[in-house]
User: What shape does this take?
Amino acid sequence: MVETRRTMRLLACSVACMAMVSLSACGGRSDTISTPRPQPSPSPSPSPSPSPSPSPSPSPSPTPVPTNFNTTEFRTSDGPGFHSAVTAWQQGATGRNVVIAVADSGLDTANAEFAGRVHPASTDIAGNRSVVPEDDHGTNVALVAAAARDGSGILGMAYEATVMGLRIDSPGTCGTDTPEDPSLGCAFTDPTIAAAINYAVDNGAQVINLSLGGSRGSQDVIDAVARAAAAGIVVVVAAGNDGDSTGRGIDPDRPDPFAQSLRDAGGDAVIIVGSVDENGTLSTFSNRALDYEDGFIAARGEVICCVYLGSQIYIDDEGFLYLFSGTSFAAPQVAGAAALLKQAFPNLTGQDIVNILLDSARDAGAAGTDPVYGRGILDVAQAFAPQGRTGLAGSTAALPLGDVIAVGSPAMGDALSAGQGALDAVLLDGYRRAYRYDLASGLRSGAQQQRLQGAVGATHRNVSLGGERMSLAFSIADNGRAGGLAVPQPLRLDAEDAEKARVLAGRVAMRLDPDRQLAIGFNQTGEGLAAGLQSRDRPAFMIANGGAGDAGTLRQSDIAFAFRQRMGDWGITASAESGTMYAGDIQQLRTDLSGDRQREGSRSFAIAADRDFGVFDLSIGASVTDEDRTVLGARLHDALSQGGARSTFVDADAGWDFAPGWRLGGSYRRGWTAAEAGGLVLGSDIVSDGWSFDVAREGVLASGDRVGFRIAQPLRVRSGGLTLELPVGYDYDVEVVTYGERALSLTPTGQEIMAELGWHGAIFGGNGGAALFYRREPGHFAGHADDRGVAVRWSKDF
Assistant: This one.
């Protein structure tokens, strides 16, 4: 068999002064570069940063206590800081128990940087020598990948990984070197390289680093790489150091032929690594990515600290230390990153890891994938961030990061934004990597109800007609008169005028006989129709609504009916409605949720009994409201639940005409809401209530007018919330999810109390009203500024 000999060119002939650091890099060719290098500056250890939405970045599970990595050892190292490895370290990924096979010129097993982490299978593949090398290339490669975090020297990318040193230099080709006179090349044969790859596969390596190059690999090498790829092993290969070798029959725009052949053989399990300097610019010596852009990534490989003598960084008698450069030292940066991913996410295959590293690379050069930098520059922090479709473990529903998890309703006030604490759950990304994700970051309380706008902000006309047996009433939007004409014209509506005259609400009421009445309404609630049939004497207020009948949600009735039957002294009224429930604030929902998630169906049925006792009157009732996709008006993400809820309410309303023209009244509502069990919702225990007290006087300023004062609490969740069964653990070995119960409180910390002093009566040929109002903790939001003001309204019916 003809042996192909390969030569590694070390770019490591660099000299640096301890005080004013200067260096020169020289390779197998005669070109020399000299440039000042500043001392590494302190940089704080980064920590996971928040995502674009209002949510924090998820982290691999479990998450240890973050550690300070801003040390001299860290700042001396070229690679971990540049590639944001601290993010992975703080999440517990250090490469522990992951085996990196370094097939190279050998490994200095006595170096304390590898203490306790030299794999027992480390050996000389090419002969019967010790694995301890004659030169330091293989040791330097291993240091970049896995130097220990021991407070001295440098710090490797995967500082707790196990190193399998595989010596593959042909005997007698490297020679003995010293830091001052390093060996510039070693020879390797294809059979030895293939044997080393197969040996690494057979002895449990999960990452193989090949910092060597030359002509295309033989069939033995190709078969060995294909076998490693099939075994789920990541193969990292240097791109080559021929970037400035133009005019010598070498193509610098493409990776080294050896690297090309490995990528061709191993596909997505092989990643080619070029070199960049400390500014992220591709090194002049580095081969580029042309034709292999999709499998090419760049990493720090220029002026890397430092050459060791024994277990310490070597400093010569004149105070100089030695740096090295080359794609040989960019490759182990990526090999170390691959080891971090393998430890953190043991389910990943070699292809998965390579694709993650490529997809998460920091863009460089031309936008997107380009023929120089390929996919970009290694970014460990982004590699550890979720990629692809994300969702809660065990759920088939997608949960994109930053999605709104739940939007509250008016009755819940600030419950979903105050005092929830963490709602940690396990989220899986497109590679089925498990992350801890705080669902509380996606909770949104509904915006406060703008009661003043609802009281006086609408522009509409009320139109009614009818007699003793039947009446019709409509509210019509009035945004202008057709043509601006003052003289009545025949009704000829084009599309624009029809929109201006759209019916906002309508009601038809009929007296079937003296004891029976029927009402049908459009955009009218069933309770409102029932109150109209009861003809109860309730004072009207603009801001402070009564406690009975307050739904505590944002809803709109599409169609409703009510039927009333007199039975002796009692009146029995049944009502029903079908309509739409809006979760939270409408404008917020248009921003946070899309499409059909803005509106959900609801239906309700109520029955009430009323009776007069002379100067006393009483009404009591019960109602049931079914919601298709909301829970007392709150909307949950599909990943939590796709069910609705049923709320049961009891109401009491009483009045006392304690003196001529005077009335004292009060109302109370108590509700119980049961969420539909399903998805991640196990159950609920939601109790709500609302109340009001008022006093009114008729005929104060004129006959028929009324002055009243009311104090009220809108419907508010009094206690309880949802019990969720969240994924809290994930076993990679069997892909089994562990669940735990978590409480989602829907009880607000704030409590709105409204007070209103109002007047209503005839004035200026129409109906007028004025109110002085005050709201403490409006919307049930604790700490929110009080809402106070004056409202004036005038209308005319025709």
